[in-house]
Amino acid sequence: MQATLPLVAEDDLLTTGEAARLAGVHRSTVDRWIRLGLLPIASRLPSGHARVRRQDVLELIKRERDAED
């Protein structure tokens, strides 16, 4: 049987804590972004912990900064 490749490289997936550090915000802010649909969940572990895409975080940061200008 042939293994399937993941759609996103594991290096591109971040925990909510890593996403918060990248964005310079508290982890609860990242949780709120997810809850509001501003930051999509790329995958969820069996434990329930979410993973988000690095690129999605970077795009959200850019949108937030552009909105401030």
The CATH topology is given as Multidrug-efflux Transporter Regulator, Chain: A, Domain 2
Largest sheet: 3 strands, antiparallel
Write the CATH architecture name.
Orthogonal Bundle
Number of helices: 3
Strand tally, please? 3
Query: Rg from C-alpha positions?
Result: 13 Å
Separation, N- and C-terminal Cα atoms: 53 Å
Give the C-level CATH assignment.
Mainly Alpha
Strand order of the largest sheet: 1-3-2
Helix/strand-derived class?
mainly alpha
**DSSP helix fraction:** 40-55%
Q: Write the element-wise H/E pattern from the N-terminal end onward.
A: EHHEEH
Strand percentage, roughly? 5-15%
Shape: globular
Walk me through this protein's architecture.
With 69 residues, this protein is mostly helical. The chain has a single domain, classed as Multidrug-efflux Transporter Regulator, Chain: A, Domain 2. Helix content is 48%, strand content 12%. It is built from three helices and three strands. Strands 1-3-2 form a three-stranded antiparallel β-sheet. α1 (16-23) packs across α2 (27-36). The longest helix is centred in the last third of the chain and has 15 residues, at 54-68.
